[in-house]
Amino acid sequence: MLRRPRVVRPGTALAVGIVTMLMLAGTAVVSTMTHQPLFDGLGHVFVYLCFGLIGVIVARHQPRNPMGWGAAGGIVLLHP
Questions:
Q1: CA-based diameter of the chain, in Å?
Q2: Whole-structure pTM value
Q3: Do the Cβ atoms of 72 and 10 come closer than 8 Å?
């Protein structure tokens, strides 16, 4: 039986998680510098962090699971 090469590696999930954290940190810096809050409160930040963290964990341990990639990548797309 031929073995298919892995297209997605677990390290890619970690990279998506790092990009998500950098985007959240950058948004916090920009919103404090412009005095315009982009988040309605810490509740939104908590939800973004939870979805991103769970998505990265699932995508890292099960790279073929599309739900993990959807949760991790969806935060990048839904970020304000």
A1: 60
A2: 0.72
A3: no
Q: Is the pLDDT of residue 57 over 80?
A: yes
Domain boundaries, the chain: 11-78
* Other beta carbons less than 10 A from residue 15's beta carbon: 12
Token pair, residue 27, equals 């948004």
Tell the burial category of 13 from Cβ atoms under 10 Å away from its Cβ (0-12, 13-18, 19+): buried
Residues 38 and 31: beta-carbon distance below 8 Å: yes
Q: Which amino acid is located at 51 in the chain?
A: F
**Tokens at residue 15, please?**
């990279």
